[in-house]
Design brief:
The chain has twelve helices and nine strands. The protein is elongated. It is 38% helix and 19% strand. Strands 1, 2, 3, 4, 5, 6, 7, 8 and 9 form a nine-stranded mixed β-sheet that branches. With 323 residues, it is an alpha/beta fold.
């Protein structure tokens, strides 16, 4: 073999070896649409059932994504996210300036309301359902304590003490119910109980109990009726001492949700529900989850017992997310 030919063969073989080796060592191209990793969410009891449903459906589409969700109250969620302990907070009241100053960035994702609740075994239950309660009466029960017994509400009843329950944890429900009466959560009087489940259990077990709950803890989303042992006290909005047909939208969950969506139920205690991050997140999983929630995820809201955002609000929140 000629010298020049041998050199050519060696050069070609070396080039082939280099090319093969380089290709084998190159990182494999990943499917750009495939999400993989984990994020964490904590916060409002009000949002917990809906968020769990969203996570369940989202992770069916993205099986390599793991999302941990825990409820501990809106206040805990905000503290956790601002301190970097979780990626996302579930938040059930308006975000205040002090929170945005610390970096809170948020999008609205759904609506619900806080509802006053009563034990269905209460001797005055039927009368309360017919007359409802005025805002001032709630104020005199939960704030000034001028109303202390059931006889002050229903004159031909016994003077049994009203056992008032309030939330012991910093929460959106307490804040929004207090805001309905022009005050803050810390102004509410009563026996402190932790969380929405704690509140509903306390009222169910106390014939003379009175409290407040987020919609999903007062109504069963499957039956659309109140859970056994508990019912919602109608708001006497026109304060004429009775619940008129225009104020009577509590018979089932569908009627109530429609009243909230059409603003026939007052806000507060109706309110938007939010996801919060510290600064606008750059986490790809969080961003994709938020985008999905504002699009495909909206179809699960009614089924889960919540109220969808109107089209204008959805457009605003989607634009905010895409900026």
């Amino acid at each position: 073999m000629k010298k020049t030919t041998l050199i050519s063969v060696i050069v070609c073989f070396a080039a082939l070896l280099f090319t093969t080796t380089s290709c084998n060592n190159a990182p494999k191209k990943q499917n750009s649409t495939e999400l993989e990793g984990s994020i964490s969410i904590s916060g409002a009891f009000a949002m917990y059932p809906l968020t769990v449903k969203w996570v369940e459906e989202f992770t069916k589409i993205h099986p390599k994504v793991k999302i941990d969700v825990s409820a501990g109250g809106a206040g805990k969620g905000m503290t956790d996210v601002l301190n970097g302990l979780v990626d996302v907070a579930m938040f059930s009241r308006e975000i205040v300036q002090a929170e945005t100053d610390k970096g809170a960035w948020y999008i609205a994702v759904a609506k619900d309301a806080v509802l006053p609740t009563i034990n269905t075994e209460n001797p005055v239950y039927k009368a309360i359902m017919e007359r409802g309660l005025k805002k001032q009466e709630f104020t005199d029960i939960f704030l000034t304590e001028k109303i202390k017994n059931w006889k002050q509400l229903v004159t031909n009843s016994s003077a049994k003490k009203i056992n008032v329950y309030t939330r012991s944890d910093a929460c959106g429900a307490g804040e929004m119910f207090a805001k309905y009466m022009g005050k803050k959560q810390e102004d509410l009087k009563g026996i402190g109980v932790f969380g929405d489940p704690g509140m509903s259990d306390a009222v169910k077990k106390d014939k003379f109990g009175l409290g407040y709950n987020n919609v999903i803890y007062a109504y069963d989303p499957k039956t659309k009726k109140n859970y056994d042992g508990i019912s919602v006290i109608p708001l006497d909005l026109n304060e004429n001492g009775k619940i008129d047909s225009s104020e009577n939208f509590y018979a089932n969950l569908d009627n109530l949700m429609l009243a909230i969506k059409e603003d026939r139920f007052p806000s507060p205690p109706a309110r938007n529900l939010y996801f919060v991050t510290k600064g606008k997140t750059e986490n790809v999983i969080v961003l994709e989850f938020f985008k999905w929630v504002l699009a495909e995820g909206q179809k699960y809201i009614h089924e889960a017992g919540y109220v969808t955002l109107n089209d204008a609000k959805l457009k605003t929140e989607t634009e905010k997310l895409n900026k």
